Amino acid sequence: TGLVTTAEVTDATPAVYAAHVDDRDKKDEIAQQFYNDKINGQHKVDVILGGGSKYFGKENGNLKEKFQQDGYDYVTNKTDVANSQSNQVLGLFSEKNMPLQLDATKKNPLLVDMEKSALSKLEKNDKGFFLMVEGASIDNSAHPNDVTGVMSEMQGFDKAFSNAIDYAKNHKDTLVVATADHSTGGMTIAKGKDYKWNPQAIHQMKHSGSYMTKEIASGKDPEKVIK
Fold this sequence. Notes:
The protein is an alpha/beta fold. It has helices at 12-15, 27-36, 63-69, 78-83, 111-122, 137-142, 147-170, 200-204, 209-217, 222-226, and strands at 2-8, 38-39, 42-43, 47-51, 73-75, 89-92, 131-134. The strands form 2 sheets. The protein has a 5-stranded parallel sheet, sandwiched between helices. It starts with a strand and ends with a helix.
């Protein structure tokens, strides 16, 4: 089994597959359940990739070290993901949510990179596997109406979806299900001859609106940040 997300691995969507709490914000407890809750003495999730390293460190029982003691690879960047040899892996690439694809450094794996790594490990099980892959930052960008962030993350999700479909074409017993939780940010596709969609300004942006907002809020020159 595998859980892959661009959010914290303890966030609501990945957590619902491996934890049982009465409040989605109990992320320390969720992380503990990832490690402590087992089936027939085995950890429930073999591949865990995403953000949220703060919930697996010293302040929450050194969970990442405990996973390593149980045979998991612990990876923190794109290179480590590619070189991971164990069939079980815990990958945490940021303290909280992973940075948006548009803003991330090259050391950060993309959603499709994490998906490919997960598939390469899980497909070794001759009894089959379950893998959840979440493009969580689409929603995270839509809430603050960050259109550049949304489009960037949609592009990342599209690559992961296309890779999943290609995998299914080569593995005929694979089912791919794609769904969305909800829509935020007011993005719509209009109708009528007077509607115009000019994405040139979005294509020219080198960072997301959220990234630029944080940079300006920290005191940097707005004109330099926007350029």
